[in-house]
Write a structure and sequence with these properties.
By secondary structure, the chain is of the alpha/beta class. The chain has one domain. It is built from 13 helices and 8 strands. A 6-stranded parallel β-sheet has the order 4-3-8-7-5-6, sandwiched between helices. Strands 1-2 form a two-stranded antiparallel ribbon. About 35% of the residues are buried.
Length: about 260
C-alpha cells in the first residue's frame, strides 16, 4: 500500500484523512525519519474538525500535514455508513500505537523529544516510559512558555531541541496550541517528525486516569474520558459535534451523487 498516494486520501466531515492503521502510520513515520528534513503526522477527530472551521491557521496546518491519522471511532463509523473503506483498524491514536512506538524508538535508538505538560509532568512520564522501555532516548520540556517564535523562551527551546537532535518531536499542549506551535517551528527547527499527542504524557505520568483496555476494545473510551474529566470534555463531546451537521449533510450529498 502506497501511504503517500494522494488519491488514497478521503474527505469526511469537512476534513481530509488518510485511512492508515497504527502499524502503517509507524511505517510511514520510519520513512519520514529516514528521509531527513521534517514531516508532520497530524490527527483528526470531531474536536479538530470543529475547530478548523473557525481557525484558519488550524485548517492550514492540516493542509500542510504529510499524513493525517483518524483519532475518532465515530468518524470511522460515519465513514462506514457512507460506504468508505474505513474500519476500526484505522483508528490511530497515541493509545493505539503507544507500545509499538516506544518499542520501535528503543530498538532503533530513535531520539524522541516531548514538548508539553505542566512542570514535572514530562519528567514523571519519561520515568514511567523508561520503566517499560529501558534504554529509550527521551528528552522533555514543559509546555508552559511563551510560544511566540521570536520570544526568548522559544529560542531557548529550539536550542535545546537542536542540541538533542531528535528524530521525533511529540507535542502535547492541547488543540489548537500544539498545532500552532508545530506550524510556527517546523521549518525553524528543520529536522524531525512532528506528532501532536495532546495529553498523552499526562496519562503516562498518572495525572489523568487512562481508559481501561476493555473500554478501548468496545469503543467506550469517550464515555470513560467524559466521566473522568466532565468539565473539560462535556462541551467537546456533547455540543461541538452538532456543529458538524452541515459537513455531514455535504457527505450525504456526495454519497447520493456516487450512487446516482
Amino acid at each position: 500500500m502506497d501511504l503517500f498516494a494522494p488519491e488514497l486520501r478521503l474527505r469526511l466531515l469537512g476534513g481530509v484523512i488518510d485511512p492508515v492503521t497504527p502499524a502503517e502510520m509507524l511505517a510511514a513515520m520510519g520513512v519520514f525519519v529516514a528521509g531527513g528534513g521534517t514531516a508532520v503526522i497530524a490527527s483528526h477527530n470531531s474536536h479538530s474538525l470543529f475547530l478548523q472551521r473557525r481557525t484558519p491557521a488550524l485548517k492550514a496546518y492540516f493542509e500542510d500535514a504529510d499524513l493525517i491519522q483518524i483519532d475518532s471511532l465515530p468518524m470511522l463509523l460515519w465513514g462506514r455508513l457512507l460506504g468508505l473503506k474505513v474500519g476500526r483498524e484505522h483508528r490511530s491514536a497515541y493509545s493505539d500505537w503507544r507500545d509499538a512506538f516506544w518499542s520501535l524508538a528503543r530498538d532503533r535508538q530513535l531520539r524522541v523529544f516531548h514538548v508539553g505538560g505542566v512542570p514535572g509532568v514530562g519528567e514523571r512520564a519519561a520515568a514511567e516510559i523508561r520503566k517499560s522501555f529501558a534504554g529509550v532516548n527521551l528528552a522533555v520540556h514543559e509546555g508552559y512558555f511563551d510560544v511566540d517564535p521570536q520570544s526568548a523562551d522559544s529560542r531557548a527551546l529550539r536550542r535545546d531541541i537542536a542540541a538533542f537532535d531528535p528524530d521525533i518531536i511529540l507535542v502535547g499542549m492541547g488543540m489548537p496550541r500544539q498545532e500552532a506551535w508545530i506550524a510556527a517551528n517546523r521549518h525553524l527547527i528543520g529536522r524531525g517528525v512532528f506528532l501532536s499527542v495532546g495529553v498523552a504524557f499526562d496519562y503516562e505520568a498518572g495525572d489523568v486516569a487512562a481508559a481501561p483496555r476493555w473500554a478501548g476494545r468496545l469503543g467506550a473510551e469517550r464515555i470513560h474520558r467524559l466521566l473522568s474529566q466532565p468539565r473539560r470534555l462535556l462541551v467537546r463531546y456533547l455540543v461541538e459535534p452538532w456543529f458538524l451537521t452541515p459537513a455531514a449533510l455535504a457527505d450525504l450529498g456526495a454519497w447520493f451523487s456516487r450512487r446516482a
